[in-house]
Amino acid sequence: MSNKQKLYSLDDHFKELMNDHEFVAEWKKSEPEYLLAKQIIEKRIKKNISQRTLANRLRTSQAAISRIETMSGNPSLSFLKRIAEVFNTKLILKFE
Predict the structure, then answer these.
(1) Rounded Cα–Cα distance for residues 43 and 33 (Å)
(2) Is residue 35 in some structural domain?
(3) Per the domain annotation, does 4 fall within a domain?
(4) Is residue 43 part of a domain?
(5) What pLDDT, in 10s, does the model give residues 53-88?
(6) How far is residue 28's CA from residue 36's CA, in Å, rounded to a whole number?
(7) CB 38 within 8 A of CB 44
């Protein structure tokens, strides 16, 4: 008998969790924050800048950037506009 373990990706785990109705309900509540954090992290990494560098460009603290990226902060619309300016991109908000 083999002791090999099957590799289990984060995507596999997420798909499994999406079968749990309680998880889905909680996910829907936090999805906008998650998507915002994900986009900011992706843009920051693509620009090859640290949280501290982004914070300096925004004239805020590294902790403020960390709070947004960990979904524990609640950035204002004006702050999101400033982030978009630093990333030289357009901020788009929409309801679906």
Answers:
(1) 15
(2) yes
(3) no
(4) yes
(5) 999 999 999 999 999 999 998 999 999 999 999 999
(6) 14
(7) no
* Counted domains in the chain: 1
User: Residue 27: what pLDDT?
Assistant: 87
Distance CA 32, CA 4 (A): 38
Residue 96 lies in a domain: no
Q: Which domain holds residue 42?
A: 22-86
In the prediction, which pLDDT does 58 show?
Answer: 98
* CATH at 53: 1.10.260.40
Q: State pLDDT tens for residues 11-69.
A: 888 889 999 999 999 888 888 999 999 999 999 999 999 999 999 999 999 999 999 99
Q: How far is it, in rounded angstroms, from Cα 12 to Cα 82?
A: 36
Please count the CA atoms within 13 angstroms of the CA of 19 that sit on its side-chain side.
Answer: 4
Torsion angle (degrees, nearest 10) of CA 7, 37, 87, 43: 0
